[in-house]
Please model this.
Amino acid sequence: MTITIYHNARCSNSRRALELILAGGFDPQIIDYIAEPPTRAVLAGLIAGAGLSVRDAMRTKEPEYAALGLADAADDALLDAMVAHPTLINRPFVVTPLGVRLCRPGDLVQGILPAKEA
Model:
């Protein structure tokens, strides 16, 4: 069973989600999305899978948001900006066999962790 977390160690929500995944006995795939940004297609899939709008998945308080003039940008421009500037991606996204979730707060990960097999 694969669990993937798009992780930023500087983010308390991301650290909390990872802590809960590990405490559940899972060995997740940890992707440092700042160092290894998802492709545009993967990012769009995460956002859709989590049932979010592209704007909901964006960190609007980051300096790049204002610098790039994204307040009125269309979804395509927002996706391109997030891929080019991964600090704009809200975090953490977690993917499990039960679904995709933006885990803000980190405790939301519990809703998509599978039951551990005995």
